[in-house]
Amino acid sequence: MTIRAAILGLLASVFVCCYTYFNDAIIHQTMFVGNTMPISVYGGLILFVLALNPLLTKLRRVRPLSATELVVILSMTLAACSIPGSGLMRTFTSTLMMPHHYARTSPGWTTQGVLESVPRRMLADVSVDEDRGLNGFVQGLGTGDAHIAPAAVPWAVWRDCLAFWVPLIVTLWVCLLGLSIVVHRQWADHERLPYPIAAFASALLPSSDKKLPAILRSRIFWLGALPIVLLHLNNYACQILPGKLIPIRTSFDLWALRPLFDPIARGGGWFFFRPRIYFTAIAFAYFLATDVSLSLGIGPILYAFIVGKLRDVGISLTGGGFFAPKPQTFLGFGAYLGMLLSITYTGRNYFMAVARRIIGIKAGDDVQPTVIWAGRLSIAAFFLMVAQLAIVGLEWPFALLYSAGIVTVFLIMSRVIAETGLFFIQAWWFPGVILAGLFGPVAVGPQAMLIMLLLTTVLALDTREALMPFMVNSLKLLDTQKLHLGKGATFCGIALLVSLLAVIPFVLYLQYDLGVDLADRWANVNVPTFAFNQTVSMKQKLEAQGALSSAMSAHGFERFGRTAPKLDVAISAIAGLVLVLVVSAGRLRFAHWPLHPILFLIWHTYPGKAFAASFLIGWFIKRTITKYGGARLYQDLKPLMFGLIAGDMLGGIIPIVIGAIYYLITGELPVKFSIMPG
Q: Rounded to whole angstroms, how far apart are CA atoms 396 and 279?
């Protein structure tokens, strides 16, 4: 690890965090990050090793970056990618400010007093300066082409809430960083998970003589990459010059087949009848075990079929508000819980050895000191997070359960990333909602519910860009270069902290200068209302049942004595748990077991539905090649699949660069072009 690499990694991290808001919210280009395989980072890596790094070899005073240095830069940048988009900043400031705006037009909020129920430090304090603090945030303080000075931003409005949220976010990050190191050795060495995303990045690293990596010198690689790049650029040009060129379709309309597959259609199977091809997903399916790629492909289809059949008998797994306790949400929770039990059982010897060493007991397994201290740090951060939640007003039993739930979300997502390369994944179950369903609204109470839903809105609403999934790939990359994982994680932590402290004032300045981006209705119109709408609904139901006073008066363990779980959601959670455990046991017991438990983690989610067709195509290609061409042909075609991924990355980064240049020159919004699902 060189000082140059650390500095460049820090600069790259801050740039990605700050530029993402400009790219996504100001010029409305395709998401700069968007998922755990950001086109901006991996496309930028390809351009760097293909053009810029070879150019540096010709300069006498500038030494080209080595593979080790690039890994350090890449790992720091990937960690910081969890900040600027849906992982945090896309909704962070609007969640803390916009409830004050929507309270003006929401009589139910006023009647139920939900805004006054929020702990003071969890929202921006508009009483300091309501006109500039709230109205300036919504409408912008800039006039015409004149921009405001940084001092014009009402920073005092944000002081107290940021003093709560920033330490809490950092505490969660420390917990997840430590946990990433703890599980790494088990997943990477003992179970030998494939880490498809890290494998792709490793293939792009320059060789020891600083020349182009071998993969970029492969003709078969470019045979896969160039057609995909040209396809995307052609479609991009078709949007710029409509009617001048012929677009190449990557999606298909099969709606005429609906009568043949009516249960799938009635179960929400839009993706089955209007599939879109994603070449990166096809390539990853090629690298995976066939049971994994098959499960990723058929899971959403199977789920739509089941939902359609259940609707025939009057059973619905969906319905209600975004945070409503519904069977679909609990089915996902049960699956995640089953996966947690499964991976804990698989790695029980190693994890028990780590646990013993953490508390100072000698263990038979060789546990590295870095893992021991990472485990201790993770545990300390976890209980500090529990204390922070208790201090803000969440009773400690719920603070403990909520914290365990949110860590479980990120842990299992990371496992999925390491095992499948599913770079766009959303959990779509929320710890606060799970607690309300399992214990009942009277036991939880509206105050605790509101706090937990606000926490979820900030920390784990849209998990497409989450720290721990980024970190498992970063650690794998560091490991391939024989770098110290503790030092690498420390550099990542520094990049996270510096980037967070840089991006918050940067985003607030742009929002107060131009006004919050109301064109992004999801982030700035819908999300800030979810927690409050659900709490109002909960209070109204409790009031109608005559149980509101009981729910608001209970404290501590007294609440658990009022537990009344909802039967339908409890059954759904058990079903998800059992399905995962049964399939996991079958996979361990039988050599040719056809399915993987990942099926039940993704089958109800939007990313699972979006990628289903592509994973099925990749599964079919791999099965056909291995059956008729054997292992040798399978290995020979790997560079072709790497080329498909590179084609997507280059086909995405080039329009982003063109759009930015166009905006800077003309001041007009460029055409929006998307490669990955949004």
A: 47
Comparing CA positions, the residue from 339, 362, 352 lying closest to residue 602 is 339
Is pLDDT above 70 for 213?
A: yes
What letter represents residue 133's amino acid?
G
In degrees and rounded to multiples of 5, residue 276 shows phi and psi of -125, 140
Residue 428, classed as helix, strand or coil, is coil
Asked if residues 416 and 501 have their Cβ atoms less than 8 Å apart, the reply is no
- 360 C-beta neighbours (distance < 10 Å), count: 7
Q: Which DSSP string do the residues of 1-70 spell out, in sequence order? A: --HHHHHHHHHHHHHHHHHHHIIIIIS-PSPSS-SSS-HHHHHHHHHIIIIIHHHHTT-SSSPPPPHHHH
Q: Which residue has the higher pLDDT, 200 or 561?
A: 200
Where do the H-state alpha helices sit in 83-132? 92-102, 107-112, 114-117, 130
Sign of the Cα pseudo-torsion (537, 543, 549, 550, in order): negative
Q: For residue 2, how many C-alpha atoms fall within 13 Å in the half-sphere facing its CB?
A: 13
For residue 503, CA distances in Å to 14, 38, 508, 566 come to 7, 18, 8, 42
Residues linked to residue 146 through DSSP beta bridges, in sequence order: 143
Question: In this structure, is residue 366 part of a structural domain?
Answer: yes
pLDDT tens for 88-112 read 999 999 999 999 999 988 888 988 8
Instruction: Count CA atoms within 13 Å of residue 226 on its CB side.
Output: 7
What is the predicted pLDDT for the residue at 524?
A: 93
pLDDT of 244 over the 90 cut: no
Give the number of C-alpha atoms closer than 13 A to the C-alpha of residue 422, restricted to the C-beta side: 32
Q: Provide the 8-state DSSP code for 355.
A: H
493-550 pLDDT per residue, tens: 999 999 999 999 999 999 999 999 888 899 999 999 999 999 999 999 999 999 888 8
pLDDT of residue 60: 63
- Burial category of 108 from C-beta neighbours within 10 Å (exposed 0-12, middle 13-18, buried 19 and up): middle
Can you give the residue range of the structural domain that contains 162?
Answer: 1-30+66-191+347-565
Domain presence at residue 370: yes
- Would you say 87 and 503 are in contact if contact means Cβ atoms under 8 Å apart? no
pLDDT, the chain, mean: 92
- pLDDT band at 300; cut points 50, 70, 90: very high
Residue 618 in any domain: the answer is: no
Q: On the CB side of 58, how many CA atoms lie within 13 Å of its CA?
A: 4
- Tell me the whole-structure pTM to 2 decimals: 0.95
Report the pLDDT averaged over residues 464-475: 96
> Could you tell me which residue, 669 or 78, shows the higher pLDDT?
78
- CB of 411 within 8 A of CB of 340? yes
User: Does residue 146 sit in helix, strand or coil?
Assistant: strand
Alpha helices in 208-316 (DSSP H): 219-240, 262-266, 270-273, 279-287, 290-312
Number of domains the chain is built from: 1
- 403 falls within a domain: yes
